[in-house]
């Protein structure tokens, strides 16, 4: 982040402000960890802060410190709109285009007069924020929030609560420190967060070892549906609404399923198609190994985006049509998908 921007933000935060902090729709560990960490930090400085999530998030994140104070736009539109319109500053975290919060909330954010600050690590940021800390090389928005607090010269304000939130997002976005986005700096920060009171073992347990039996049955069903397209070094999984209902799907239950495809030797791209009858869309997650960019792939064909090795998208067709379209596109990528 440029010094002039840091100085401007320091000046802005000198007096108590009304601040709204926003993660993306269907927030994950990094989105909730970063927004809650910033919430605790700003409250500690004497600001009035609120985290407004566009919609609900998984149970396995609902132990995070401060989770009970998060308001959801989807269920409290009026109150959230008022909060946003009354705010002086809006932080948008872990996304870089207002479409990522959904149409209605996006419009409210767009028209709000507050000063907007973006902290994000996704590709191709839109130009809606006055101050932008955007870096696609950093593992997670949580790592960036740690840096942001450090830029402001206040690392010593990172207590056990903030450290716990930040460690959670770094852990989830790096696949427990295994993805190539993990750097020595990531591990140094994680080490510092441990020193400040983040309990790595408890956090891992809360996020990964608190699932239901039904979720494991759903995983079994997903793995039963896994198809390998050997010619394209690609594997995909599909889950229909009927299958999700059969195992009483809850938000977050399919988190991580897509990675199983990538665990097969030689697979370069793994995809999961999940039917969502309520929203009338097929939600698609893409993962890749090496230089194959699923960000470009999702952006070009499935109205999505993300990072080089992890991206999301959607299709407004039936589940079968989405899969057929996907398969029909692959020949054009045959060379790029070679290992
Ligand atoms: P996931 O597959 O876990 O939903 O998302 C993988 C990555 O891509 C995450 O960093 C997520 O924020 C991003 N992502 C997911 N869906 C979309 C989308 O529709 N558009 C864009 N631009 N990014 C997405
Ligand atoms: Mn992230």
Write out key terms for the chains shown:
alpha/beta; 6-stranded parallel β-sheet; 6-stranded mixed β-sheet; 13 helices; globular; binds guanosine-5'-monophosphate
In short:
This protein has 339 residues and is of the alpha/beta class. It has 13 helices and 12 strands. It has helices at 3-12, 29-44, 77-86, 103-111, 141-151, 160-173, 184-195, 200-208, 213-224, 241-246, 259-262, 294-301, 319-329; strands at residues 18-22, 48-53, 71-72, 89-93, 115-120, 131-134, 227-229, 234-239, 269-276, 281-288, 305-306, 310-315.
Task: Chart the SSEs and their pairings.
Layout lengths: L2 H10 L5 E5 L6 H16 L3 E6 L17 E2 L4 H10 L2 E5 L9 H9 L3 E6 L10 E4 L6 H11 L8 H14 L10 H12 L4 H9 L4 H12 L2 E3 L4 E6 L1 H6 L12 H4 L6 E8 L4 E8 L5 H8 L3 E2 L3 E6 L3 H11 L10
Parallel strand pairs: 1-2, 1-4, 2-3, 4-5, 5-6, 8-9
Antiparallel strand pairs: 7-8, 9-10, 10-12, 11-12
Helix pairs in contact: 2-5, 2-6, 5-6, 6-7, 6-8
Bound molecules: guanosine-5'-monophosphate and manganese (II) ion (MN).
Manganese (II) ion binds next to loops.
